[in-house]
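Escalated from tier 1: adenosine monophosphate holo job.
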Amino acid sequence: MKKTIKDYDLKGKKVIIRCDYNVPIENGVIKDDSRIKASLKTIRYARKNGAKIILLSHLGRIKTEEDKQKYTLKPVADRLSKLLRKKVTFIDQTRGKKLENAINNMKEKDIILIENTRFEDLNGQKESKNNIQLGKYWASLGDIFINDAFGTIHRIHASNCGLAENLPNGLGLLVENEIKKLTKLIENPKKPYVIILGGSKVSDKIGVIENLINKVDYLLICGGMAFTFLKAAGFNIGDSLLEQDKIAYCKKLLEKHENKIILPIDIITSKEISENAKTNERFLGEIKDDEIGLDIGHKTTEVFKQYLEDSKTIFWNGPAGYFELKPFQNGTKSLLDIISKTKAYSVIGGGDSARAAKEFNYQDKIKHISTGGGASLAFLEGINLKALDLINEK
Ligand code: AMP
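Tier 2 regenerated the structure:
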């Protein structure tokens, strides 16, 4: 068992907490603050126990000096202050005297948020390449390191691995909860167990498929990735998304697990991807050469429902269609509705499917929505996650 923040006496200690504040910001306005809200529990716990709290996070990718303005964490500090109803001091540096002085002057329960860790990437990708000196420097600012950023648990960065390598450490409450919830999907999941995979690419999902195919009863495939499977099964897919180099893989998988893998039987197609697109509902075999498959059809939803309604465990990653546009939302919405009415232990694996659940107002009707898209897939792939491995055992 990994140590958590609860295993440490925090009183008077400088506690560095790696949060995931990689939130959408447009013109300085935060568009979705759920990741900020998700971090409050750990911060409140640390305050209650008398810690001096130093928060850090990355935001976006920093490739040029101009990116710095767009990706400053200042708006996050302001939102955090409002949500906590406590002052959060923002330090517009990732290193240096100003930061060090601010930390040295902290009192118990004070909170500091330092500037976007990826500002360090401008000079040799120090953050993203886990520069040894940077990890050591950040560690020198605190006494204990807490990793509460599930969204980057599959990354090897100075702000997670570098810090964990150089300080006594533990998990934050958010990461502890994510691990608890996701572990239920790999250790003795209740059966029938159904996985839905959608989104754009087969290649992103191969690791999960390989690790879970023998644990699940059914694998329902939808989204853009369904078309490589349909092509492999011998159907014309028109102008739909295709990963040519994955056809052979899909073919093999279909042969090996023909009773487990459930493909769409009808498709919403269009000649264009736009808000006013004219759509057709086509059975397999009817898709025209100049049509793009952009959502699953009603008959597919009915078939998927039969598998989902009796299931006891459901994991879903990747939308069923091009859900950003109205004409292609129905499949994703319908699946959310079906899942929300089952009694199954249902988990949505972050990313776009989590965004869809929020946008269509199903976030409270799903048992768990992960805060990490790539991270939850990596966790379910069962690969070694260094940022997690480095956390001390109890
Ligand atoms: P991913 O990041 O792999 O989970 O993919 C999510 C993206 O897949 C979303 O932006 C969806 O719009 C897109 N998507 C889902 N279904 C389709 C489809 N049939 N054709 C093209 N893109 C799709």
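The first helix runs from residue 34 to 38.
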